[in-house]
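Lecture 7 notes. Example A: sequence first, then its structure tokens.
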Amino acid sequence: MKLNLSTNEKKYLQGILSFNEAEKYIKKFNNKIFVIKYGGSALDNRYLANNFAKDLVLIKKLGILPVIVHGGGVQISETLKKKNIESKFINGLRVTDKKTITIVKKVLINRINKKIVNLIKQAGGKSVSLPGHKKKLIEVKPLKKEMGFVGKPNKIKIKKIKNLLKQDFIPIIASLGFKGNKVFNINADTVAGELAASLAATRFYFITNIKGVMDENNKLIKEITTKKAKELIKKKIIKEGMIPKVQTCLNAVKKSAKAAVILDGRVPKLLLKEIFTTKGVGTLIGKK
């Protein structure tokens, strides 16, 4: 199998991929869309952030079409604190007034989105900044009035994303949306899940700071059905902050995504290990 990889890229892949093993996955996933939810906090570790950018450029060269969605809760809270603006949350969602939405926009676009775009460029890839409120990409349905400028995706212009993928770009989507001429804050997990469903993604990767779904003995579950995942929520084995993550995955799979995977962002070269090796890294949630 001939691959157009540079010497540095081949070196980077050493010790992770045996091409005999990887070949079947390269064929299986050729030209398939993968939606990847990337936490803003993962960017704070320079080594892992650089790894992530290199992984993306390589999986693109190996035939996969990645679409990245990011939030930036940690960085938004830090910035608000510096400006003496209190962060308020209702059911885990940030109450977003006029002052807050201005800061949310700046942090997501200037601090996080542009950084991801630049890292990919440095790694030799082509990516494009795509905040959800621009070019009428994500129209929202506003949530309760007390939430302020917070919405959930109502319509996503997937044609725009597909066109960018055809032009060989990696779209980097910031979790913002619009309604009329107003900008809205959206939970990044929700955006990623809805996008994975709208694009009928072959994989929805949920990168977080935990290993994946653990069983009652605290062992990683490599693969789980939607039925079993619901059972584990009922039994409170999947609990607390893990519940919304698993539910986002279940929702994406229920709609149109082929499978969702919860991955540990602290693992170096995790996308390559997950996609192109039999062992994988996180927990795969499938339809059955």
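Example B, a different protein, same format:
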Amino acid sequence: MMVRRFPLRSPGFLGAVALANAGGVIAYLPLLTLLLPIKVEGLSGDARIGVFTATVVAGAIAASLSNILFGWLSDRSVARGGGRRGWLAGGVVATAASYAGIALAATPVALVAAIVGFQAAVNALLAPLMAIMAEEVPDSQKGVAGGLFALGSPMASGFSVLLVGQAMLTETARFAILPAAITACMLPILLAKRRIAVANDGDGLVWPRHNLIVAGIARLLIQIAGVVTQTYLLYYFESIVPGSASAALPKQIGHLLIVAYLIPLPVALILGRVSDLTQGYKPALLIAALVAAAGLTGMALARSWPVGAVAFAIYATGSSVFVALHAGVAMQLLPNPRHRGRDLGLLNLSNTLPSLLGPPLAWLFATPQSFVTTMLILAALSLAGGLAMMGVKRTAVGGG
């Protein structure tokens, strides 16, 4: 079986891919981890967990459908001889507009509607972006590209600190800074010339669909923990930090996120490069899942800020490395080159369905005073996600 080899992409292009991915993370991470919880708390007070859960669940439904839709629409554009960058640019504009709706929301109902609009808009950005990465980065560089994806969270966390750490910034100013940052991150990939770097005509490796399904299940299990820890992180720390110290938590959490998401970056890059060279990714993914589970167990046992912060950093290291490496692997498992956008949208359900599953789990087992049971359940799910990736078989059939 002959496999077509494509020229390697330059470090500059891989940098543009990493920056664009970081822009995608900036589009949602500061909002969902800090800005939205703060706004919900201001609107709802003691009812915040219920209202916040409603916004996350409604947004997840919108995200799930929108990502598949815009991935499919970008596939149609490619089939007609066009590209995906027009859809990406439209997503940037729509995301910027959606922040205004969130800023203007004055009731819980209005806020839920605004989050639905935001999720539709941000997935109009993310769907074509991921498809561009899948078809313009050669398979032989996808491990490194996946490792570079770990840059997104610390950059987004840095913006979180900027947005909540400056007392002079109003809510309106915060929602104005975000789209400017996203646009700056997207410009290099938008301006880069389109160059397909993977087989589009069946020449090469065509992976059985069940591999993508198994990989999706594994990521879903890991991402349930990711959703709960990201969206309820402020409330988690409020449950273990004395009330007198809770006022400083948003700024402390912002700094913690930067540190916790910087640590995995060199680890993910090294393991990504090794996986490119050896095509052996399973041990790294399993170890990453084990580290994530250990961190979540530590969070369950923590009773103070220092212990909880260290445990979260351990969790974030394992989870971030797993997600980054998994992204590079999953892009190689797409079963049909004509439907990359659609299939990536279906795979993205492993990112959005956790937002339907995680919040009800938190609502059932967490209280404003305790997240112990929730964290232990998340630890078990993370371990199961690592074990699930052992079921991906590196077998393929020739397409030509």
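Note on Example B: The two ends are 8 Å apart (CA to CA). Residues 396-400 have pLDDT under 50 and may be disordered.
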